[in-house]
Write a structure and sequence with these properties.
230 residues; Undecaprenyl pyrophosphate synthetase; 7 helices; binds 3-methylbut-3-enyl trihydrogen diphosphate; binds magnesium ion
């Protein structure tokens, strides 16, 4: 079971409390641990979290710098508990535009957690689904590979810095009230169930995840077939 979450609403949550957006991001980061810890208990094997999109570079400099600092701090602070909880961390997205010390922190955390077998946590940083697909096409063309769906997913995994082929998403959750994909996992979400909640990310709790899973369980997935054939 692969669940992906667009963690949206930090800025509006902070503004509603007359605090700076950066404070909203810090509170949003704090909300992550409880979600990751509760995820295996509700049957989630792979959890992908959208932390920073390729388009988020267009935000004011101070906010971008604050977010990069927050990632670094997050990785340092959370790696020991991830190891303890059996979390295998993979950071997906581009790395060539990230500061060198953040890239080092990512490698250190991935290395330290590589034997985690309870859950795979994929953190999307400088991620764009379109960019990933374009790069797969480019690599395939340059090497003269004729891709099929399986090899496309393999190549995409390599491009996103994981060893495995990208897994299909079963359930996509977006907090913060918007109902859009914002360039997240476009290939992997071909048959994903979509769940939108007005809860702002800093307020998102394991109970909200359980509610999303309850709604998901009641959905009728047909994958283009008729119900009896599924
Ligand atoms: C999501 O919260 C976090 C990131 C995009 C990094 P936002 O910062 O987009 O919060 P809103 O949408 O402005 O409330
Ligand atoms: C998507 O949220 C990216 C993350 C949550 C990291 P945005 O807030 O950047 O998306 P838009 O601008 O509302 O589409
Ligand atoms: Mg937003």
């Amino acid at each position: 079971m692969h669940v992906a979450i667009i963690m949206d609403g930090n800025g509006r949550w902070a503004r509603a409390r007359r605090r700076p957006r950066e404070w909203g991001h810090r509170q949003g980061a704090k909300a992550i641990r409880a979600i990751v810890e509760s995820a295996p208990d509700v049957g989630i094997d792979v959890l992908t979290l959208y932390a920073f999109s390729a388009d988020n570079w267009k935000r004011p400099d101070a906010e971008v710098r604050g977010l990069l600092r927050l990632f670094r701090r997050y990785l340092r602070a959370e790696t020991p508990s991830m190891v303890e909880d059996g979390v295998r961390l993979q950071v997906i997205g581009r790395r060539d535009r990230l500061p060198a010390d953040l890239v080092r922190a990512i490698r250190t955390s991935e290395e330290a957690t590589r034997h985690g077998s309870r859950i795979t946590l994929r953190l999307a940083v400088d991620y764009s689904a379109r960019d990933a697909m374009v790069r797969v096409a480019r690599v395939a063309a340059e090497s003269g590979t004729v891709v099929d769906e399986a090899s496309f997913a393999e190549l995409m995994g390599q491009i996103l810095n994981t060893d495995d082929a990208v897994p299909d998403v079963d359930l996509l959750i977006r907090s913060g009230g918007e109902q859009r994909l914002s360039d997240f996992l476009l290939w992997e979400c071909a048959y994903a169930e979509l769940y939108f909640t007005s809860r702002m990310w800093p307020d998102f709790r394991p109970e909200d995840l359980r509610e999303a899973m309850r709604v998901f369980a009641a959905r009728d997935r047909r994958f283009g077939m008729v119900a009896e054939a599924v």
